[in-house]
Amino acid sequence: MNIQADRNSADRSSVKGRKSEQAVFSWVEIFSARTQLVVLLLLALLVTGVAVVYATFKNRYLLNELQLLRGQRNELQVQRGQLLIEQSTFSLEARVERKAIDELQMKVPEFAEIVMVRYE
Fold first, then answer.
1. Structural domain range at position 71
2. What does the DSSP assignment read for 53-67?
3. 87 lies in a domain?
């Protein structure tokens, strides 16, 4: 009977071991809907975190590019202003000459007709 009792106790302990293993897996519930929801939410959190980092990087990159373009715009505006001044300077002489020829019937003298006057 002793042998029979040992077998029964061994069977009981193996059954208890299996039950405890099943209890651990049932407690953890790896494949339950709740665990899958938590994993899904963690993945969503990770994706949104990466998206925030990317958006911040892109924002800073575009802000830097905007500053560079504003600097170029200012330089081009300065150049444009200088060119407009230069154009008005050149066009002023041509305008005066054209008006003198058209309205006053003046002409450019020949080289031989030019007299140099010294002021002393």
1. 52-105
2. HHHHHHHHHHHHHHH
3. yes
AA letter at 88: S
Query: What's the whole-number average pLDDT of the chain?
Result: 82
For 12-59, what is each residue's pLDDT tens digit?
A: 555 555 555 555 556 566 778 888 899 999 999 999 999 999 999 999
pLDDT beyond 90 at 78: yes
Tokens of 25: 């897996």
- Assign residue 110 a region (left: φ > 0; alpha: ψ between -120 and 50; beta: otherwise): beta
- Number of structural domains found in the chain: 1
Q: What does the block give as tokens for 55?
A: 């958006």
As separate numbers, helices (DSSP H) first and strands (DSSP E) second, the chain gives 2, 0
